[in-house]
């Protein structure tokens, strides 16, 4: 199924006029992001394992949907790094550092895919099928140097890696609440989340940037199309505490106040970003 078409269909104002079986199949899904993440899963979920039955049906569905969304994002990252390593664009870095970092991250992302697939199978669920990706985003980018401009392609390769990793960090945070009813699933997600944060910091350092996000700035050289990854990071209200008011004797600057805290991406926001690179 084309996920972009899926999004169009399920954001239609005529959703309530769809057939009853389809409406009922999605009656427990709480967000568009979660719906899109299971686009390739047949209607009618498989029988749940005994472990999954320990949670309520709503909690289980919500947790499964969160894992399917995470798996879709991990597919995207794993595919991106493999294609990057096969493109020779990283040869632009004569130190070999970029290749070494991409090789390590690629192994991590592949391991994340395997863990999420195996976890879903253990729950009696069918993992969402890996989409077909277009990392040019319809021609907006040329990260694999098909146009013969290796320097530009190298810069875009690093920029897209940053965008994908920063998306992953915020997306995992956004889905944590859906896993609160299952300690094992929450632990697994948090273990991946912290590694995604390390990836994001490593890529940003590779690009000569700070290892963290300042306000809603995407960083020098980042394409405007990636701005959605950073929207909302300028928030200074944390649990009703205004972070610019904190500090020992003098308030924190806006930069410092926003760098100290990360924001979530909702399922809807994560899917919108990923869909820029999903063909089917």
Counting helices, strands and paired strands, the structural category is mainly alpha
Our count of helices gives: 9
Unreliable stretches covering 5 or more consecutive residues: 1-59
Oligomer: single chain
The total strand number stands at: 2
Overall geometry comes to: globular
Q: What is the C-level CATH assignment?
A: Mainly Alpha
Please tell me the overall pLDDT: 81
Q: How many separate structural domains?
A: 1
* Cα-atom radius of gyration: 20 Å
Strands side by side in the biggest sheet: 1-2
- Please trace the helix and strand order, writing H or E for each element: HHHHHHHEEHH
Helix content: 40-55%
Going by CATH, the homologous superfamily would be Ferritin, core subunit, four-helix bundle
Distance between the termini: 6 Å
CATH topology category name: Ferritin
Strand content: under 5%
Protein name: Ferritin-like domain-containing protein
InterPro entries: Ferritin-like, Ferritin-like_SF
Structure, explained:
Pfam families: Ferritin_2. This is Ferritin-like domain-containing protein. It comes from Mesonia phycicola. This protein has 280 residues and is an all-alpha fold. It has one domain (3-234, 264-275): Ferritin, CATH 1.20.1260.10. Helix content is 50%, strand content 1%. It contains nine helices and two strands. It has helices at residues 3-10, 20-25, 32-37, 57-85, 97-122, 150-175, 183-206, 254-259, 267-275; strands spanning 237-238, 241-242. Strands 1-2 form a two-stranded antiparallel ribbon. Helix 4 runs parallel beside helix 9 (267-275) and helix 5 (97-122) packs antiparallel against helix 7 (183-206). It is globular, with a radius of gyration of 20 Å.
């Amino acid at each position: 199924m084309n996920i972009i078409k899926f999004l169009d269909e399920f954001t239609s104002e005529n959703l309530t006029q769809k057939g009853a079986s389809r409406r009922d199949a999605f009656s427990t899904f709480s967000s568009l992001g979660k719906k899109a993440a299971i686009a390739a899963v047949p209607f009618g979920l498989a029988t749940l394992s005994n472990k999954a039955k320990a949670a309520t049906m709503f909690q289980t569905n919500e947790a499964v949907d969160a894992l399917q969304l995470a798996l879709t994002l991990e597919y995207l990252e794993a595919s991106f790094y493999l294609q990057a390593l096969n493109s020779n664009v990283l040869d632009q870095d004569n130190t070999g550092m970029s290749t070494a970092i991409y090789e390590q991250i690629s192994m991590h992302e592949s391991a994340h895919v395997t863990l999420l697939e195996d976890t879903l199978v253990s729950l009696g669920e069918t993992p969402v099928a890996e989409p077909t990706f277009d990392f040019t985003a319809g021609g907006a980018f040329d990260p694999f140097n098909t146009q013969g401009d290796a320097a530009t392609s190298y810069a875009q390769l690093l920029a897209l890696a940053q965008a994908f990793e920063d998306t992953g960090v915020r997306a995992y945070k956004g889905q944590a609440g859906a896993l609160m009813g299952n300690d094992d699933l929450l632990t697994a997600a948090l273990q991946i989340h912290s590694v995604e944060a390390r990836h994001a910091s490593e890529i940003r350092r590779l690009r000569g940037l700070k290892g963290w996000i300042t306000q809603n700035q995407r960083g020098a050289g980042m394409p405007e199309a990636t701005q959605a990854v950073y929207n909302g990071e300028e928030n200074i209200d944390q649990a009703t505490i205004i972070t610019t008011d904190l500090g020992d004797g003098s308030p924190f600057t806006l930069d410092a106040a926003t760098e100290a805290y990360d924001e979530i991406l909702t399922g809807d926001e994560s899917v919108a970003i990923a869909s820029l690179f999903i063909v089917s």
